[in-house]
Design the sequence.
């Protein structure tokens, strides 16, 4: 098991000191006075341990007890570590990456070097029924802001030249 339990002693000291300073400031007292007031001993399986304890007695019911410390940190060298096997993380490719790797123009269907035409928002394509180019209709129908096209189709889109017949 852990061979560096001794490092937790510093953390324990920081936590106890912080708590005592906070309480001393709250009650306008000194740290040693608060430490004496809340000092307690608790029983563990390995004998009594010192701790700090705040106890609120309640008439006829169990008292409320808040305790810091009293935990014995020991190494158990015979412990068997039983870590859970993590499920393998499988992430599918993004749809755009899959379309790019296909290497097929979505406008004319040719298999060539492809580029991606991108619009800022679908509203920029114009309203349906207006004199919209076929590539814009395709993007609007698919609800995609991107269209994977070959270089000639991409030049046609930007140059307002006719784009070859769309394949679906």
Sequence:
């Amino acid at each position: 098991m852990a061979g560096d339990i001794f490092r937790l002693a510093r953390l324990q000291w920081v936590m106890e000191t912080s708590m005592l300073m906070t309480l001393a400031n709250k009650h306008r007292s000194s740290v040693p006075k608060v430490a004496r007031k809340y000092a307690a001993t608790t029983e563990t399986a390995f004998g009594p341990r010192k701790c700090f304890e705040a106890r609120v007695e309640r008439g006829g019911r169990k008292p409320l007890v808040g305790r810091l410390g009293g935990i014995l940190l020991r190494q158990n060298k015979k412990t068997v570590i039983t870590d859970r096997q993590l499920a393998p993380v499988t992430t599918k490719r993004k749809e755009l990456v899959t379309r790019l790797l296909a290497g097929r123009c979505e406008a004319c269907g040719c298999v060539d070097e492809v580029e991606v035409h991108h619009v800022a928002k679908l509203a920029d394509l114009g309203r349906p029924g207006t004199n919209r180019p076929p590539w814009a209709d395709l993007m609007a129908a698919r609800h995609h802001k991107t269209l994977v096209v070959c270089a000639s189709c991409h030049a046609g889109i930007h140059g307002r030249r006719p784009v070859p017949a769309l394949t679906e």
